[in-house]
Write a structure and sequence with these properties.
Blueprint: H1 3-10, H2 13-22, E1 27-28, H3 29-33, H4 40-52, E2 56-61, E3 64-69, H5 71-89
Helix pairs in contact: 1-4
Amino acid sequence: MGNNKIFRALADPTRREILGLLRHGEITAGGLAAKFDMTKPAMSHHFSVLKGAELITSRREGQQIWYGLNTTVVQDLMAWVIQLIRDGKNGRGKQR
């Protein structure tokens, strides 16, 4: 898992909102874009960053592109975050 790419992707509130929308299932690029007040190139950039971090998947169906969460990477990320939290509560990971 490329943590730097994931953190870069998650740093932007628009990208976090896109991920939140995709929690409920696949949405077309146009459907996602309609929820934001930005240009098509700006939305494409967000999709590209999320795909580069492997947080979302895409598939073409005719003229439309459908985006969805890459659940494998999201689950791996969540497991990693949970482990960091547990390590912190158990006193591991503290600098001495």
